[in-house]
Amino acid sequence: MLKALLSEPTIKYCETPTEGLIARPYYAISNLAFLFVGIMILLKGKGSSLSKAFGSLAILVGFFSFLYDSSYLYVFQLLDLTGMLLLISFLLYLNLSVIYRNKALVIVLQVIAILLGLISIIVFQGYSGDIVFGIFVLLCIASEIYLLRVGRHKNYLRWLLPLVIFIIGFIFWFFDASKIFCTSFGLLNGRAIFHFLNAIVIYYLYDYYRLQE
Predict the structure, then answer these.
(1) Distance of CA 114 to the CA centre of its chain
(2) pTM score above 0.85
(3) Could you read off the pLDDT of 7-37 as tens digits, one per residue?
(4) How far apart are CA 195 and CA 51, in angstroms?
């Protein structure tokens, strides 16, 4: 098990890892976008619980992703996926806690779902982590559409904007992860653009949910 965790990641991106202290420097540096956005949210929220949650998660996602891109080890690939799952699970919690009154049950079910997802990622490896993350994203989208239709959430355009940005970022990520299109322009690569756009997504989502309170 330990040998597997210390092996190379299961997904090979365009940027070739080096033997230096930071294996994939351009990918790693691009994660600073999450730190910047996290700090912006914390400052804008002035200590609100929602800003603390969004700001902390943005920083955590960036930190885990930085470790992954710096180390080029499978164990940190799992951490990277964990950060993404925690973020999307929080968004799902915000929606489900409006739909269902029993918030404790929602949290328990989400913890179980995350654990099952991580287990499946370890067992099946490959792109299984992205499939699990994709399922959480679809659940979040479905719950949000429901809340908008029943009038529990408003200002759908403010929600649609980060969704479109996320889809664009995912396209860049897919091109990089599958090596369909690789660039050699430093930070202007698929995975880095994915990081930049998703940092913006987190900021817009915080702004959207802030207006729903």
Answers:
(1) 14
(2) yes
(3) 777 788 888 888 888 999 999 999 999 999 9
(4) 20
